[in-house]
Design brief:
Family: Belongs to the LOR family.
CATH superfamily: LURP1-related
Helix content: under 10%
Protein name: Protein LURP-one-related 14-like
Radius of gyration: 16 Å
Pfam families: LOR (PF04525)
CATH architecture: Beta Barrel
Number of strands: 12
Distance between the termini: 33 Å
Strand order of the largest sheet: 1-2-3-4-5-6-7-8-9-10-11-12
Organism: Brassica oleracea var. oleracea
Structural class: mainly beta
């Protein structure tokens, strides 16, 4: 929890490491996210730092039942796997480390906050949080998505990432199924977690 009731995570606040310490930086990060539609049911995300270095890739199904997304590093090593659980009014995802499906490798679950809403929002529960039925106990909350031109992630009432999504839109890229946008990740916040949430929130809109 940020000190002095700040409304935004800042330098000096505790590290939020969920996927791994290697994804946490002591300074704000502006990430460029490039999304490309590969087919009717598949798309791909690539995440770059401000210098243009590839940090993460996410492949998988953009539509369908029991969707699966895989996040890898630039070398192709699997960091985590996102799996949608069935088809319900309120979507649910489970995220495991690596390619695992085992309970002991569960990192967190993501539950859609409301079945019907103009803006997609989700509640995030870490693996050790068993009281997933009470939305007041969620560890993180995310809302927005690409089509909303906004994406924000909160820990309690503190903003830890998002601060809006800035599109780089051209009709040429749109016709080719390409979309570029930027996401700001606050200091000491796990950017792999933030990107995973962005992808799942975006998928929930489809």
């Amino acid at each position: 929890m940020p000190k002095n009731k700040k409304t935004e995570w800042q330098v000096g606040d505790p590290t939020i490491s969920i996927v791994g310490d290697q994804f946490c930086n002591p300074y704000p990060m502006d990430l460029m996210v490039k999304r490309k539609v590969q087919s009717f049911s598949k798309d791909n995300y690539q995440v770059f730092d401000p210098s243009g270095n590839l940090l993460l890739q996410i492949d998988g199904q953009a539509w369908g039942i029991n969707r699966k997304r895989v996040m890898t590093d630039p070398a192709g090593f699997t960091i985590l796997t996102m799996r949608q659980k069935g088809m319900t009014l309120k979507n649910k995802w489970e995220v495991h480390g690596g390619e695992s499906k085992e309970r002991e490798d569960l990192l967190f679950t993501v539950h859609q906050s409301m079945a019907v809403s103009l803006k997609t929002s989700v509640d995030v529960f870490l693996a050790e949080n068993n009281n997933v039925m009470n939305s007041n106990t969620c560890d993180f909350h995310a809302s927005g998505g690409y089509s909303n031109i906004s994406f924000k992630v909160f820990k309690s009432d503190a903003l830890i990432a998002g601060v809006g999504v800035t599109h780089k839109f051209t009709w040429g890229s749109f016709c080719k199924g390409k979309c570029n946008f930027r996401v700001r990740v606050n200091p000491e916040v796990d950017y792999a977690l933030i990107i995973a949430l962005l992808v799942m929130v975006d998928d929930n809109e489809n």
